[in-house]
Amino acid sequence: MHPAVARVIDQVETFMAGKDDALNIPREAGVFVYGLLLATRATRAVEIGTSYGYSGLWIGAALQQNGGRLLTIDREPHKSDAAATHFAAAGLAECIECRTGVAADLLHDVDGPVDFVLSDADKENCREYAELLTPKLADRAVLLTDNTLTHAEELAGFCAWIRDHGAFESCNLTIGNGMELSVHRPEGR
């Protein structure tokens, strides 16, 4: 990882420690996402739930090395603005686009194929987001849904749905706050 990105990741961790509305993945989940994106060579990613840009820094760092781009969405303008500042400080502004608004509305405009999705926003809409993005996912794209341990009850229906969905291979990981790792297999299993 480029030292400038690592430095900004550390700075954003300190910044978020003073915020009561910082909704971010833990560092171990960031390390996992970074490694996963490098391993899969993903180049087109979507993040739902930017918050202050912490997970976007991990995603963007990998995508920059892969020659890719991230579209990240948050409904809070002050968070999108702060995230954009963090991305610029890390030298990632050229490979990350921030959009502000209702995710379900903005996902209609996403062009495929998408290689990677991090769904880390409002849990009650995870299925809607997955349904909107599924036709735009590349074969073997990864849909990673955060908070399956911390919000197990809220995400139980989504996890059951995606595991039963014929176009995904899906399992739960106990990394960070828990993550449902779903691999898109449109031709079946």
Describe the protein's topology.
Layout: H1 3-17, H2 27-40, E1 44-48, H3 54-66, E2 69-74, H4 77-89, E3 96-100, H5 103-107, E4 114-119, H6 126-133, E5 137-146, H7 152-164, E6 168-173, E7 179-184
Parallel strand pairs: 1-2, 1-4, 2-3, 4-5
Antiparallel strand pairs: 5-7, 6-7
Helix pairs in contact: 1-3, 2-3
Question: Could you explain how this protein is built, in words?
Answer:
By secondary structure, this protein is α/β, with parallel strands linked by helices. The protein has a single domain (3-184), classed as 3-Layer(aba) Sandwich (Rossmann fold), CATH 3.40.50.150. Helix content is 43%, strand content 23%. It is built from seven helices and seven strands; from the N terminus they run ααβαβαβαβαβαββ. The protein has helices at 3-17, 27-40, 54-66, 77-89, 103-107, 126-133, 152-164, and strands at 44-48, 69-74, 96-100, 114-119, 137-146, 168-173, 179-184. The protein has a seven-stranded mixed β-sheet with strand order 3-2-1-4-5-7-6, sandwiched between helices. Helix 3 (54-66) links the parallel strand 1 (44-48) and strand 2 (69-74). The longest helix is centred in the N-terminal third of the chain and has 15 residues, at 3-17. It is globular and about 40 Å long. The termini are far apart. The mean pLDDT is 94.
